Amino acid sequence: MQNDNPNTERYIAIARACLKAINDTAKNAGDREQKIQAVYQAIDTAFQAEFADYRKSVAIMASVLERIASGELDHGKAADLARKTLDQQPDSTRKTMMH
User: Fold this and answer.
1) Who's near 43: CB < 8 A, 6+ residues apart?
2) Are the C-beta atoms of residues 39 and 18 closer than 8 Å to each other?
């Protein structure tokens, strides 16, 4: 994976969480199904953490779009609200691919 890819750090964090879960479950005796579930949980937790900014940004933008779509704002106010919303989005969501 290229180091200039904006998602490299996300992939690395998720991969580390997966490897840690696999290593932790390999060391412990126990039910195979429990070990698999522990790895799945670690993967899910890592994904949730890495994509929290995206979910927050999408929720804010959806709220702004609903307000604009309601028709209660004139064209200028709607455009201003849209610009302010775009300016406030986290750096991790700006012009980057999610995968």
Assistant:
1) 14, 17, 18, 21
2) yes
DSSP sequence for 8-25: HHHHHHHHHHHHHHHHHH
pTM flag (> 0.70)? no
Predicted pLDDT of residue 85: 86
| 10, 12, 16, 17: CA torsion to nearest 10 | 10
Treating both helix axes as pointing N-terminal to C-terminal, what angle do 52-69 and 32-50 enclose, rounded to 10 degrees?
50
Q: Residue 70 pLDDT > 90, yes or no?
A: yes
- DSSP class of residue 31 equals -
Give 53's Cβ-side CA count (13 Å radius): 12
Quote the distance between the C-alpha of residue 54 and its chain's center.
4
CA distance 61 to 12: 28
